[in-house]
Amino acid sequence: METETPAQNPKPRERLRHGLLWGVLIVVIVGIVGANIWSPHHQDSGDDTEPDLSVHHQVPDFSLIDQRGALVTPSDLRGKIWVVDFIFTRCVAACPLMTDKMKKLQEEFAESGVYFVSVSVDPEYDTPDVLFQYANRFGVDGNTWLFLTGEKENIYHLTQDGFGLAIGQQESEVLHSARFVLVDHRGQIRGYYDSNEDEALQKLRRDIPQLLIES
User: Fold this and answer.
1) Which of 191, 194, 1, 213 is nearest to 94 (CA)?
2) Looking at beta carbons, which pairs linking 104-113 to residues 24 or more positions away fall under 8 Å?
3) Residue 53's pLDDT is what?
4) 88-124 pLDDT, tens per residue?
5) In the prediction, which pLDDT does 158 show?
């Protein structure tokens, strides 16, 4: 007659302990699933995070010239939602892609009153006329999209200290951020979005309507 090993014939106390552990584990799993289903923040899209539109800081005062030669200050954009990027027309890599993506945003929000602003980080070359030609080349609506230029020192200060974005120059190459910045109707920065990431751009598309509701 074969004898059973302890593994084959566990003691009643061990069987009870194992049963209790499995019971606790099942309760925890059920609780997690239930929380995800009944949580008021749960969304069918699978995005369980609330929009992060906290105020970063106020856009400082500036005075720049647009592609038509008109003076532009923050007061001209007060009361409007605007999206900003920093580009230059001689850029052959990131900037054309950024402008193309910004154009798609402008087309999507054409009826909403949202403004778009592109600040040149190569202002010594990017005169208003050069920016006007650049805008026409991309077929943008110049009524709600401003291409701005001005003094190099002022633009570098605005980029770094005003918008908190990196900028620099290595020989003839201008190094700048590829982020889009969302500004509310009070001139407050409310979000940063990497233009190279589709997920970030989708978040921007969701955040703009939220600010339109606020305004």
Assistant:
1) 194
2) 105/201, 105/204, 105/205, 106/140, 106/141, 106/144, 106/145, 108/205, 109/208, 110/141, 110/144, 112/81, 112/208, 112/209, 112/212, 113/80, 113/81, 113/144, 113/212
3) 84
4) 999 988 999 999 999 999 999 999 999 999 999 999 9
5) 96
